[in-house]
Amino acid sequence: MKALLLVDIQNGFCPGGNLPVPDGDKVVPVANRLIDSGKYDLIVASQDWHPPGHGSFASAHPGAAPFEMGELSGKPQMLWPDHCIQGTLDAELHPALKSEEIDLIQQKGEDPGIDSYSAFRDNDRDSSTGLSDFLEDQGVTDLDVCGLATDYCVKFSALDALEMMPGVRVRFIEDASRGITPEGVAAAIDEMQAHGITVINSSDALRE
């Protein structure tokens, strides 16, 4: 049972969004080719789904600016621009993404007191979204992960998949993903590989 996880391919992380990843929209046609390929038994997506005033927003911290390190619930927190607020256009999946083919959309980041980069659990690793249980219930044995952004939500989702679903083969699809900085992307790929995640391109996935 092979599954594809599309991480946060939302308007907010694409050009014109509130927290754009450089060339974030370039992942959409690659993701659509993977969706259309027939290579996957199950297609799931994660969706950042923050309430207004989320504690990871710089606007929730008087005097703070986006991309500064701050504090949330007593722990260090990168402060972001307001983004992917529930019910807004910014939070919607990219309109060109073939979302009608997605079997499950897993929302995350709803707790105002803790950020959630991973599609599987919050950053404190205390509260699970339930995605790992869903995938295990479906009998998933192989999981390919891609989306936005490589150096944050994609990396943490892939690492959590590996840890929370022992025995499942996890791969990262590099050309179906984009990151915030080249240095961050390189470090994220090194970390994923160090944990046993295989790095592939979409051509590899489509060839199988």
UniProtKB/TrEMBL annotation:
Pfam families: Isochorismatase. Its EC number is 3.5.1.19. The keyword Lipid metabolism does not apply. Residues 3-202 form the Isochorismatase-like domain. NCBIfam families: PRK11609.1 (NF008623). One of its GO terms (biological process) is pyridine nucleotide biosynthetic process. Keywords: Hydrolase, Metal-binding, Pyridine nucleotide biosynthesis. Signal peptide: none annotated. Belongs to the isochorismatase family. GO terms for molecular function: metal ion binding; nicotinamidase activity. InterPro entries: Isochorismatase-like_dom, Isochorismatase-like_sf, Isochorismatase_Nicotinamidase. PANTHER family: LD05707P, PYRAZINAMIDASE/NICOTINAMIDASE. This is Nicotinamidase. It is an enzyme of class 3 (hydrolase). Pathway: Cofactor biosynthesis; nicotinate biosynthesis; nicotinate from nicotinamide: step 1/1.
